């Protein structure tokens, strides 16, 4: 640990930052530049799992309020910076109601040991392809988590939708029944416990039952 700064400079605490970033199109935009460098610092160097969410190397789990607090920027400024970085391909993100997963798109290229010598990392394209495939699979896994949670809470379950009077009338005629279609629809709605919220729609016909 350095006595001057109090930081522990271990092998895993460094990131590589190429001088070419000085010519980067967003370098003159302080918010976008700060958010991007912050994302490089926050990105995980190995895959893992947090609260059921899987993340890969080059990704990290956060939220807009967390980034705002860490960077001393407004949530609006952080969101705008992320939009800039996504529009030019530096970052991608996925989010649900709980978390935001940010991916540094070329993390392998930025942080590979070969990049110290200015060389394109060996197998970089294959690694990028694998990362993209892993991102897609991870998106599906995390989406399943979201869908399962919503399913358990009932948020995404479909509500009962009664058939139209025309559909019921057609069915009754086809079967040869002698039942009034309007009365039948109202009876179905009452039986499923939704008569109170839809009774105003059928109120002109209530006299038939």
Low-confidence stretches: 115-125, 201-209
| Mean pLDDT metric | 75
Helical element count? 8
Distance, first to last CA:
84 Å
What is the number of strand segments?
Answer: 5
Bulk shape: elongated
| Helix percentage range | 40-55%
User: What is the rounded Rg?
Assistant: 28 Å
Query: Secondary-structure element sequence?
Result: HEEEHHEEHHHHH
Please characterize this protein's 3D structure.
Strand 1 (48-50) and strand 2 form a beta hairpin. With 209 residues, the chain is mostly helical. Helices cover 47% and strands 10% of the residues. Strands 3-5-4 form a three-stranded antiparallel beta sheet. It has a two-stranded antiparallel ribbon with strand order 1-2.
Short description:
It is built from eight helices and five strands; from the N terminus they run H-E-E-E-H-H-E-E-H-H-H-H-H. With 209 residues, it is mainly alpha-helical. The termini are far apart.
